[in-house]
Description:
By secondary structure, this protein is of the alpha/beta class. It is built from 10 helices and 14 strands.
Amino acid sequence: AGMEWTTMNVLVSGGAGYVGSHAARMLSRAGHEVWVYDNLVFGHRGAVAPGRLIEGDLLDVDRVAGVLAEKRIDAVMHFAAFAYVGESVTDPAKYYRNNIVGTLSLMDAMRRQDVRRFVFSSTCATYGEPRSVPIDESQPQAPINPYGYTKLVIERALSDYAKAYGWGYAALRYFNAAGASEDGDLGEDHDPETHLIPLVLQVAQGRREHVTIFGDDFPTPDGTCVRDYIHVDDLASAHISALEKLGPGVEFRCNLGTGRGTSVKEVVEACREVTGRPIPTVVAPRRAGDPPALVADSSLARRELGWTPRYTSIVPIVRSAWKWHESHPDG
Length: 331
Ligand code: UDP
């Protein structure tokens, strides 16, 4: 039940961040008018097209409403969030305030200006420990950390807003975002870096001594954790497909992954192959809260969004990341 779409004016919150910057650029290449709203706490000014950045806080509802009105915004893509699982356990207040209160404030501004299309970055962390793998959308959502809860609360609110206020929304549950744009000018740069692929590539660059493998005694084929690494441009294209299909009352709740699992050891091996460098590893104890395997069944997104990921194996994903790391050694 999608509707005809034309060019839209889109506000991209968190559009100076990793996934948001890739989506903003793809949106603008698809012909949409894009404005990035970002507080630059984690975002990078240089990741936004010139003249397109509006610096501001989501908690400032008057400011956001003003931007929605001034730019005649038709739809919001919301990426701005804190996303360190470990920190969400030690400082939940920070996560509940930013990810829930901040998002509800954005949604209040949208109600004020009657903007009813919303594309939301959700996460496979809303499933918690999956009952079985691959994970499809019929599995219960039972997060095991505050980060996952903050995303689930917003999914819940969106479903209620769709019914009560006629919003159309997409809650896109990312598996492991990875890689960098092929043009080589946008990439992944978190501070602190906790994600596997950038850490392994930093070892390849000689910036770290070794890769720490968090556990090799999981019930998986090689004993290390299995994840579904999805290229950031494939995430971006799913957002655009979803946006262009949104209409009143339309609800998409979709996993975004390749459907293929890759172990930590396989990631390291792919990095050795791509970089041609030795990458020493050290096995350490498991990290708290890591499920053995998280792999998406993404057939719903393929069906409902008409989406197909272009990257389906780890080596090309790592190659895209390596190209960016080599050209931007300091992020
Ligand atoms: N991992 C690891 N060593 C590291 C960082 C991550 O072994 O230095 C593992 C981690 O246990 C997980 C996988 O790599 O199984 C991916 O972790 P990441 O933090 O990149 O993403 P997550 O799956 O936690 O969202």
